[in-house]
Amino acid sequence: MTFRHFTSIACAVAALVISCNNKTPEWVGAALESSTGQLLSTADTLRDSGRFPRSIWSGWDIEFLAEQIGPSVYAKVDSLRPQPSADKLGKLRTCDVYDWTSGFFPGSLWLAYELTGDERLLLDAVDYTNKMLPATFYTGTHDLGFMVGCSYGNALRLCPNDSLKTVIIRTADNLASRFNPEIGAIRSWDFGPWNFPVIIDNMMNLELLFQAGKLTGDNKYKDIAIRHADKTMSCHFRPDMTSYHVVSYNPDGSIETRQTFQGRSDESAWARGQAWGVYGYTVCYRETGDKKYLEFAQKIADMIISRVKTEDHIPLWDYDAPNLPTTPRDASAAAVTSSALFELCGYLPDGRKYFDYAESILRSLSSPEYLAEPGTNCGFILKHSTGSLAHGSEIDVPLNYADYYYLESIKRYMANKRRSAALDGLIVLY
Fold it and tell me: In angstroms, what CA-CA distances link 8 with 3, 113, 397?
């Protein structure tokens, strides 16, 4: 099932409307030009491989990890990711369609097309989205929202047709099959020592369920999303509004363990986990109108603003990591946060501080420190993200999801600017 034949009219119109705005700031225009070149180059490189770009291969040094995590790392060397071979280091790391990150590259192509109207991006977006089809039948992960929502979800938004609706609904059914009504949550992982693990990342996959509910008129999808969000709200967060990464539940719904698997310690605030939280609860408010989610998202946002102490607002990989010159930052956490706050600010009468903070992040990410020069960085847009430092994996490298949320952040920034201009009485093309 492909949809190339639907694109020539429907998508061309969508992109034309959005790209008509001639008020694009120069720095945004430069970022989009650079992003377009990187995406097109990567699409061409991997076209016939059946693979998707994920990151750049990196290794780890045990003394560096001990500096970041503490001496306990020496006792768990065997749990670290295997060192890649020397010939891989610094080179493109790809993944197959079943990797949790696979959908971000086609999603980035859709977003870049929407922002620029470049037809080359449209053709590549369709091509790489079609390659995602096997994932729509997959039931072995909660990450279907990332995988299918970012690819087919954006395709449906920009090029609506019945075949894409069918894909979204089928995938949502697969995600819903992982919901346990006794526990009140969607199971995240099928590996590890946990009875029923739920990770904060799972908040990001609820958007797929909300979308399926609107497409079908069936409330079961929304009900599952709400129950999961409420369970996470009550069990994942500490009094200071920081979040654990993993909460595992007993069969009766009581808590088995709380951990921060990818963070510095179980009680630390892993940077990307905090970003998933504010983004997920902002979506929950958008889709339900329930102000408890808005208030919760705002509290998380306030915590983030108070805890991130870097001058450029790009957080260290963990808020509790040592503040050393060698401590990696996480551009992916920054991009997710920026995108979330650009949406959140529009729901609040005093949302200006969230817009300003998100803009400061976006400008930092668009600076030479984080935005890659065209033809470098193995084709990725952003530098300096961190995947799972605690496991020696993807340390200070580009990540495909950092690129996706960066482009989404630009999209939301421009939407806010257009709304602001309209309120000021200017004539704006949408």
Answer: 10, 13, 36
96 is catalytic: no
- Outline where 20-96 has alpha helix (H): 26-46, 62-69
Say if domain 52-91+289-430 classifies as CATH 3.40.50.1000.
no
Q: What gap in Å lies between CA 298 and CA 354, rounded to an integer?
A: 9
> What does the pLDDT look like over 171-190, one tens digit per residue?
999 999 999 999 999 999 99
Over residues 229-282, the pLDDT tens digits come to 999 999 999 999 999 999 999 999 999 999 999 999 999 999 999 999 999 999
396 is catalytic: no
- pLDDT tens readout for residues 110-166: 999 999 999 999 999 999 999 999 999 999 999 999 999 999 999 999 999 999 999
Residue of 99, 201, 318, 330 marked catalytic: 201
Are the C-beta atoms of 393 and 261 separated by less than 8 Å?
Answer: no
Across the chain, mean pLDDT equals 94
Among 143, 330, 396, 403, which one carries the catalytic annotation? 143
Distances (CA, A) of 428 to 158, 258, 342, 417, 418: 20, 49, 19, 10, 7
> For the chain, how many residues are written?
430
201-216: pLDDT as tens digits: 999 999 999 999 999 9
- CB atoms under 10 Å from CB of 35, counted, come to 27
What are the CA-CA distances from residue 127 to residues 49, 55, 167, 208 (Å)? Answer: 12, 20, 16, 21
Q: What is the residue extent of each domain of the chain?
A: 1-51+96-159, 52-91+289-430
Give the closest residue to 243 by CA, choosing from 282, 271, 284, 206: 271
Cα 302 from Cα 239, distance rounded (Å): 13
